[in-house]
From TrEMBL:
Heme binds at C470. It holds the Pfam family p450. This is Cytochrome P450. Pathway: Secondary metabolite biosynthesis. Keywords: Heme, Iron, Membrane, Metal-binding, Monooxygenase, Oxidoreductase, Transmembrane, Transmembrane helix. Belongs to the cytochrome P450 family. The chain crosses the membrane at residues 6-26. One of its GO terms (molecular function) is heme binding. The lineage of its organism: Eukaryota, Fungi, Dikarya, Basidiomycota, Agaricomycotina. Its cofactor is heme. It comes from Phanerochaete carnosa (strain HHB-10118-sp) (White-rot fungus). Gene3D superfamilies: Cytochrome P450.
Length: 491
């Protein structure tokens, strides 16, 4: 009897899974995206994904645009069609209608706990953010100088003339330290010559480690088939342990910060304002805002929601910036004239600890950072899933598969949309024939067409746009400048 029950249950689960798979496949096959032109399918399982992974993302996309037009559909995993467009009106529509176009569910599962409602607390408060980042600049310059000194020490140990360093790895340690200190007043101490890492760094590394090759397929299936998440792999167990460590340390930090805010409130006899607080990391500011009496009780974040911000900021704000600085150093190493020009500008500054305003007043440094982020966008693309049927307006009509001219794109609930950040940033129609070259000088006279780019910053899509744009971009810009200032001046 028990045996029969097990067989029936398994049978029912398999039937349910097959039904779900069939209805998913049918909805994808019937998607109106089938009317769009696009490259032929390369593989039933992987669609055109391999070609995107083999080359720099924007290169095959550029080829597609030339061959099939600026609004096309390519094939993703299991041959499902994805909308790819560089039409700026269409992209603006997608990014501003953030309730229709959300992060795909598998991405959300992978980042679960990463994007919490607390992120919204800081949205729209741009002026305040600016003031906060001014306060954080000291941390950026301090850590940048510490990195410079680590490299100087390596050179001196190597005989005093030169040394070989893995720039991306060192910069990753520096930006981890910066986000720890500036984000939540925590010292990762990753920038240390012994290479030892502390408990939280270790937990973080485990949480985001790539599974071994043999288990990658199963991890991928787990992302897409929720039922499989009931089976726990070694990676799942490790991730759970790491999450528990992060939770313990995060909760401890939250308790300490709350106690410090309470103590300051008691000392002053009134609610403390951000400007007169001793600790000004982002987590303290978030907790303070949350404790403020003008926020209604039902709109306050729980400690868990506040805690969700810790990995959010580490993930979103750490490798992106180290990647940007590494690309800047790489590009400058290829262009000695530009490197010299930048160094000359930086050497005119007498101190090695600049304020945010002084860093922002260096014009060539600004142009180098803008050009790096345009030409080597650390996040080259992102995706959205349509949670409702929709009609997307376009700026420039396109021709569909049957030769008809279309003035809008039709999408069905469940369709995936690709936001081609790098491809748009390098588009010749916007930036001119030299769009694929690294040229900071272009920022002295930018073409009129760039005004149509719907990005939150710098006429580029690097930090995307709309309500879910990067909230750390000002932080990252000053941090990137501080790191380049210290390194290009010294080496
Ligand atoms: C060069 C550096 C950076 C780049 C290129 C970058 C780029 C991006 C992009 C493209 C997104 C949107 C991702 C998506 O929705 O799919 C994003 C979101 C986000 N970024 Fe950044 N980022 C950078 C640095 C930072 C820093 C330093 C922080 C924190 C201090 C940060 C915090 C965030 C957060 C919290 C979100 C999620 C916003 C939301 O969902 O509402 N980022 N970033």
């Amino acid at each position: 009897m028990d045996f029969l029950l097990i067989v029936y249950t398994i049978g029912a689960l398999v039937a349910l899974a097959l039904y779900k798979l069939a209805s998913f496949m049918w909805s994808r096959i019937a998607s109106p995206l089938r009317h769009l032109p696009g490259p032929p399918n390369d593989s039933l399982l992987r669609g055109n994904v391999e070609v995107l992974q083999k080359e720099e993302e924007s290169v095959p996309q550029d080829r597609w645009a030339q061959q099939y037009g600026h609004t096309i559909a390519y094939r993703g995993l299991f041959s499902t069609r994805r909308l790819w467009t560089v039409d700026t009106r269409a992209l603006n529509h997608i990014m501003t209608h953030h309730t229709i176009y959300q992060r795909p569910l598998p991405t959300r599962y992978r980042l679960s706990g990463v994007v919490g409602p607390g992120v919204l607390v800081t949205e729209g408060k741009q002026h305040k953010q600016q003031r906060r980042i001014r306060n954080l600049t000291e941390i950026f310059t301090g850590k940048s100088n510490q990195l410079r000194d680590c490299w100087l020490e390596k050179i001196s140990k190597n005989g005093g003339a030169s040394a070989q360093v893995d720039a991306l790895s060192w910069l990753g340690q520096a930006t981890l330290d910066i986000i720890g200190r500036a984000g939540f007043g925590y010292e990762f101490d990753a920038l240390n010559p012994t290479g030892e890492i502390n408990e939280l760094s270790e937990a973080f590394l485990k949480l985001f480690a790539t599974p071994p090759r043999s288990r990658r397929l199963f991890s991928f299936l787990q992302l897409n088939i929720p039922l499989l998440r009931l089976i726990k792999t070694e990676e799942n167990h490790k991730a759970e342990q790491a999450q528990a460590t992060m939770r313990r340390i995060g909760m401890q930090l939250i308790r300490e910060k709350k106690a410090a805010i309470m103590a300051e409130t008691l000392e002053k006899g009134r609610e403390v304002e951000c400007k007169d607080m001793k600790e000004r990391d982002l987590l303290t500011l978030l907790i303070r805002t949350n404790m403020s009496t003008d926020i209604p009780e039902d709109q306050r974040l729980t400690d868990d929601e506040v805690l969700a911000q810790v990995p959010t900021f580490i993930v979103a704000g750490h490798e992106t910036t180290s990647m940007a600085v590494t690309w800047a150093l790489f590009s400058l190493s290829q262009q000695p004239d530009m490197q010299r020009k930048l160094r000359e500008e930086l050497l005119q500054v007498a101190t090695d600890s600049l304020t945010m305003d002084k860093l922002n007043a260096l014009p060539y440094l600004d142009a180098v950072v803008r050009e790096t982020l345009r030409h080597h966008s650390p996040v080259p693309a992102t995706t959205r899933e349509a949670f409702e049927d929709d009609i997307i307006p376009v700026d420039t009509p396109y021709t569909d598969r049957y030769g008809r001219t279309r003035e809008y794109i039709e999408v069905k609930k469940g369709d995936l949309v690709f936001l081609p950040i790098l491809a748009l940033n390098r588009r010749k129609e916007i930036w001119g024939e030299d769009a694929h070259e690294f040229k900071p000088e272009r920022w002295e006279h930018i073409p009129k067409a760039v005004a149509s780019v719907p990005g939150v910053w710098g006429n580029q899509l690097t930090f995307i746009g709309g309500p879910r744009a990067c909230i750390g971009y000002r932080f990252s810009l000053v941090e990137t400048k501080a790191l380049l200032f210290a390194l290009v001046r010294a080496f």
